[in-house]
UniProtKB/TrEMBL annotation:
Stated name of the protein: Uncharacterized protein
Key word Membrane present: yes
Segments traversing the membrane: 7-27, 47-68, 80-99, 119-142
Keywords from the named record: Membrane, Transmembrane, Transmembrane helix
KW Transmembrane (keyword) present: yes
Lineage, opening ranks: Bacteria, Pseudomonadati, Bacteroidota, Flavobacteriia, Flavobacteriales
Length: 150
């Protein structure tokens, strides 16, 4: 039995389980689910959530397997991927260096004033976002100019 056939069977079984649990949830009704949730009972929704967790985990594992397999079988894509990861890491490092965290006490985080480290990380994330947005806009602009000039 090949991998494709096994994956089709697993997908069919998970889809069938999802449909069965969906019918069970719908048959219970909104009021029963809300009153059970108010009492802290989530037994009605738990089976559906477990199917979701399994599907999500399988998706992540399969994506990682196939991406890594492709990267190591195609060395030219490995080089370009490593360049992209390095550039992204460089943007994150530059963003961290440029942010200060000086506005630490001005914001609340979970009801408590943000620490300097939290403010520093938020600032770094914002700076990284700005750098990446500017880079994306520049890439689109240059691509448009190249298409026009042809």
């Amino acid at each position: 039995m090949n991998l494709h056939r096994i994956l089709k069977i697993v997908a069919a079984l998970l889809g069938l389980a999802g449909i069965i649990f969906l019918v069970m949830v719908i048959s219970k009704g909104d009021t029963a689910i809300q009153s059970a949730a108010a009492d802290g009972d989530s037994a009605i929704l738990d089976p559906m959530l477990y199917v979701t967790y399994v599907i999500f985990a399988l998706t992540i594992v399969l994506v990682l397997i196939f991406v890594l397999q492709n990267l190591f079988t195609n060395t030219s894509s490995l080089k370009s991927t490593l360049i992209g990861v390095g550039a992204f890491a460089g943007v994150l490092i530059i963003s961290y260096i440029l942010s200060s965290g000086s506005d630490a006490g001005n914001y609340l985080y979970n009801g408590a004033p943000a620490t300097e480290g939290e403010a520093h990380m938020v600032g770094a994330g914002l700076v990284a976002f700005y750098i990446l947005i500017i880079g994306a806009a520049a890439a689109m602009l240059l691509s448009g100019i190249k298409k026009i000039s042809k």
